Amino acid sequence: MAIGSFNGRSHPAPMAEMNVVPLVDVMLVLLVIFIVTAPLLTHSVKIDLPKAASSANHTRPEHIEFGIREGGELSWNGEKLLLADLGSRFAAAAKQQPQPELHIRADRNARYEGVAQVMSAAARAGLTRIGFVTDPARQ
Fold first, then answer.
1. Cα–Cα distance between 46 and 79 in angstroms, integer?
2. 119: domain CATH number?
3. Which candidate, 85, 83, 84, 102, places its Cα nearest to that of 93?
């Protein structure tokens, strides 16, 4: 049995009110977050730095062109090198100031194991600036 009213309309009118309580809750949470984080963003120490007219000294360290061919042949700036001599060469390069950059030019078909051995030897010797040289892709 359905409970009804004496009103002749069968469907009630849609509610035309908007519930703004969730919107107010979100805005209050954002306000609290901004109030808490604003002092952290403006905290700074004022220092009166001296003025000097000079240009920055940019010294470019030399770089080592290290080649790894498909067959596992190694080269140091174009000179052939054996894997046994690698540690002493890297140790001598790591002692230089400023430390040179190691540019590894590995053949596309070179085994990853050889590249990993070279990188491991360079890291053990103390070289920190190691990069790979690639040819740009042509579109």
1. 55
2. 3.30.420.270
3. 102
